[in-house]
Amino acid sequence: MVSTSNSKLSPKSVLQLVEILQPIARATEDPARRLDLCNQIDEIFARLKPASTAVTSKNRALRAKIDIALQAQAVIRGDQEEEDSITPNVESVMRSGDCRVSDESMFEYDIDASSDQADVYNEGTVSQPFSSPPIPIQLSPLEFDLRAMKSQRLACYGQSIYIPPMAKSSLRAENDEFFPLFDKVQEFLESEREVMLILGDSGAGKSTFNQHLEHELWLNYSVGDRIPLFVNLPALERPEENLLAEQLQNFGFTGEHIRELRHSHQFILICDGYDEAQLTCNLHTTNLLNLFEQWSAKLVITCRTQYLGPDYRHRFAPNAINQYTGSAKDLFQEAVITPFSKDQIETYVERYISLEPRAWVGKDYMDSMAAIPNIMDLELLDAGFEWRGIQFQTDLAVAIYQEQDGRPVVQYMPRNDESTWKAEFFDSDPISTILREASLLSRTANQYRFVHRSILEYFYSCSIVHPEHGPVGPPSSVADHPLSRRSLINEPSIIQFLCERVQQIPSFRQELFAIIEQSKTDSEASQAAANAVTILFRSGCQLNHIDMQGIRIPGADLSGGELDSAKFQGADLTGVNFSRSWLRQADFRDANMSEVQFGEWPFLSVDKEPTVCVYSNDGSSGSSDRTVRLWSTSDGNSVLVLQGHTDSISSIAYAPDGQHIMSGSNDTTVRLWDASTGKSLAILTNHTDRVSAVAYASNGLHLVSASWDRTVRVWDSSLPHPQLSVLRGATKIITGLSVSPAGLSQVAACCIDKTVRLWDASLGLSDIFARGTAIDSSEHIGGVSTMAISSDGRQLATGGYDTTIRTCDASTGQSLGPALHAHKRSVAAVAFSPTAQVLASAGWDHTIHLWDTERHELNKIINGHLASITSLAFLPSGHLVSGSADWTVRLWDLGRDTQEAVHTFRGHTQGVRSVACSSDGSRIASASEDKTVRVWTLDAQLEQREVVFEGHSDAVTCVAFSPIEHHQMASASDDKSIRLWNLASDVESGPTVLLGHQAGLQCVSYSTCGQYLASGSDDNSVIVWSVSSGSKLEVVGDVFGGISSVVWKQDVLELIVGCKDGSIRAWRLLVEGEEDSAQVQLVWGTGFGNLVATKACIDGVVGLSSVAFKLLKQLGAAAEMSGGRVDVE
């Protein structure tokens, strides 16, 4: 009940209270309950202050709105006499000239232009002010409710400052392709499209824009227009089924009125917080919008970018007519809000400062606080208030997750909730009130929420670890630990907050490891341990060297994990996600592996080479004449010829909606065509060999192609960088391809190794998308072409076919800065100066670039070579040596301001592939396609003496000097051999020849101790050799692209391998016995695109499905140890 105190209320306060209670009273079906609410509203009206003597437009408008509320009260009561008694008050306001009436609208009131908000506006044609009393217009209850809703929504708009956001067309659109978001939405509303998705990061202004959009639509609303309806999705119980009806009920519309609106009106639904409501459904489809006898509406939906995976458009695009498995792309549109520019931020600040004068001094605040009972108990004048405010919000966040499963909106009704958990935060206690008002909460009527879901997630993470003070105090038992409350695996933002704390607070990292250790002996620690291991892994901690025997981590996410030689014996791994993980030599003996996810299926073995695998059919025809032809089935005539490929067409596929055609060709490209005009829409070029098969995913948005390069690639042609992921694992040429009707969750490819490979492409794609809405990821697109390591062993530089250079920490693989862009074509060589202050790069554009490694800035460009530059090396003096396809080797003095080389070494009769410098600076060696190695001996005056080494039967691809024995040199060749040369003048014996690779070699490198040699080949393997004996110590074959470069770290036995598939892997060499055998163990890696389980031990595992068991066996896992017992479900 409302207090019967004699204190009076301002008109504004009366309106605020009445606007909360009247919709509740209108929606209440219980007569007694409705009467009780009406009595409360009457008491509020009774406390209305007398009219001010200062007659202004604002005062008149407020009084007029109160008259409307009183008339609404009469309608709710069903009291016609009271309604009639209100009419003269309304008429008196109308006579004042501030109310105008037209034939198409009800009475509405103007607000003085200087007032804070334009509360009420005229809809129809405005007539002149009345000079005599008009005839009162009687409104139907539905019309009254619609106009009351308009008034309420306009009055609720409180944005004193609004900066229009800019947007771009998609997540991967270029950053200079901006447009005003409001204009794009207006264009959408005037089009035939039905759904527009607006994406943006946390804090991008999505909700603010939605509120402004609704406000503008109401301002321009005329009778017969679509009705704008702002929908706070998290506040609804069932938005996936009852979106409009539930929202209209919240505005107080009766069931009869809702049914009438459904059949006679059209809407614009502005749906805010798709991500905060944790929805996954297609609201357009599940609410049956725009179907016969259903709601007619356009949808504007906003969502956090991070919430969606790559295959998200099917959640929003309307279904095509008569097509239940696809979506109608022509009915769907999207935009991505871009960060505010510096000018926009400055404009905001200027408007904020000038918003209103701020003349209060300290005494004013103190006087106001003294007038509020108990406020001083909050200790506002010391640090205690700040702490209590943070604790209040942290406790509320925890309660929302515990009591509402993370649903962010809390509805608080004092009479119903005074004995529930909500009262602790939302009752009228003065301390709770002040803490609540000081918190990052917003309120709409009786609904409270954090201003953004990211704030809720942040404060929940604070309950686990404080950003400044570290982990919360130790609980009495692990079951009471904050990480034991719930699984955080599907809460990526909370996981991200906690990952940052791992990197910042060492004690938190130690606590997570302690929880994992405790799970070995305490089953109650399993939930906390699953969260802990996921957080540690996502934060970049290496887990493969930890003893994880017996740990309990059910449901943990270790996808993409570097778990080489991990010890999981006896562990509870129920439901763990190992998709795309590196499980080489992992030990799973006696582990519980029920419901484990691997993201792949076993390949299917067949008797002969398969050429086609089909989930569903496609159409059209391709030809060896390099064209695609469309035929009429009625008369057999060719309708359209698609030309553009430069070699035979191998495969074609129609899009599910029939509007596009995709073709694959022996020219290594995939092309996308308009099926009606024959226009070429896109050319996809990342395959390195002929394309053998193409297919569409069922959503019509993703394209899939297979190639002789042994990869399957997933594309989105609408993006500037269309390749989304690469599926690897095929050991030989892929000849056929098919995508399941269920989508990318299963992709099948036929290989000439007599297998059909099966992938879950959606899992790999999701991880890439989450990392990469930023295109500038840590991986090269198209593969690593070259690598170099600094002399101190700290920095690793890589060059790629994508024209970029990247640097990372050689110990962890973590990026050290943004990619370096300057070359116009592929980068073929990189090299660090002896001091590591300069990084040199060179490539197919014939230029050398010199970079400052501290500032990541380009210092200088050197021209001089006449063809592609293939190799770089530094002398100890700081001079730079370059080799080129122009047959020359050039020596550069970087201290000279000139484009002229100090010396040009000539003698090769074909292109130079590699150059190297001895560690004492006395020799330069070059390897060439002319099958020779040439060594120039230098004296102090750089005079040269040339020696030619012959013996290779094919192009020599690489040359390297021993860092210890300056007279020892190794060369590698396309003839599959390595030759070890002794350059000592008194040694005339021939070279030692090392054989073992099955294809041409691309690189060779000495360890820094000079005892070992590593070689990489196009056979996808790295071999480690003993230099002294020439014996093969270890073969690393778990690589899925040709090896382009191998380097060794300084003073440790670690080699880093760069691959043409874009991946990089660092291995530690573990030498056994007297250097006659060795093992390698993965230290770190990037670009894991598929599951590896070579030599993984699964003996005695429990609960492993038969499908997973077969997959692991195919991947080389062992189950024959200790009797080979495996409990397979």
Automatic annotation (TrEMBL):
<feature type="repeat" description="WD">
    <location>
        <begin position="684"/>
        <end position="716"/>
    </location>
</feature>
<keyword id="KW-0853">WD repeat</keyword>
<dbReference type="Pfam" id="PF00805">
    <property type="entry name" value="Pentapeptide"/>
</dbReference>
<feature type="repeat" description="WD">
    <location>
        <begin position="862"/>
        <end position="902"/>
    </location>
</feature>
<feature type="repeat" description="WD">
    <location>
        <begin position="994"/>
        <end position="1035"/>
    </location>
</feature>
<dbReference type="Pfam" id="PF05729">
    <property type="entry name" value="NACHT"/>
</dbReference>
<feature type="repeat" description="WD">
    <location>
        <begin position="621"/>
        <end position="641"/>
    </location>
</feature>
<feature type="repeat" description="WD">
    <location>
        <begin position="777"/>
        <end position="818"/>
    </location>
</feature>
<dbReference type="InterPro" id="IPR001680">
    <property type="entry name" value="WD40_rpt"/>
</dbReference>
<feature type="domain" description="NACHT">
    <location>
        <begin position="195"/>
        <end position="354"/>
    </location>
</feature>
<feature type="repeat" description="WD">
    <location>
        <begin position="905"/>
        <end position="946"/>
    </location>
</feature>
<dbReference type="InterPro" id="IPR019775">
    <property type="entry name" value="WD40_repeat_CS"/>
</dbReference>
<dbReference type="InterPro" id="IPR027417">
    <property type="entry name" value="P-loop_NTPase"/>
</dbReference>
<feature type="repeat" description="WD">
    <location>
        <begin position="642"/>
        <end position="683"/>
    </location>
</feature>
<dbReference type="InterPro" id="IPR020472">
    <property type="entry name" value="WD40_PAC1"/>
</dbReference>
<feature type="repeat" description="WD">
    <location>
        <begin position="949"/>
        <end position="985"/>
    </location>
</feature>
<dbReference type="InterPro" id="IPR036322">
    <property type="entry name" value="WD40_repeat_dom_sf"/>
</dbReference>
<protein>
    <submittedName>
        <fullName>WD_REPEATS_REGION domain-containing protein</fullName>
    </submittedName>
</protein>
<dbReference type="InterPro" id="IPR015943">
    <property type="entry name" value="WD40/YVTN_repeat-like_dom_sf"/>
</dbReference>
<dbReference type="InterPro" id="IPR007111">
    <property type="entry name" value="NACHT_NTPase"/>
</dbReference>
<dbReference type="InterPro" id="IPR001646">
    <property type="entry name" value="5peptide_repeat"/>
</dbReference>
<dbReference type="Pfam" id="PF00400">
    <property type="entry name" value="WD40"/>
</dbReference>
<keyword id="KW-0677">Repeat</keyword>
<feature type="repeat" description="WD">
    <location>
        <begin position="820"/>
        <end position="861"/>
    </location>
</feature>
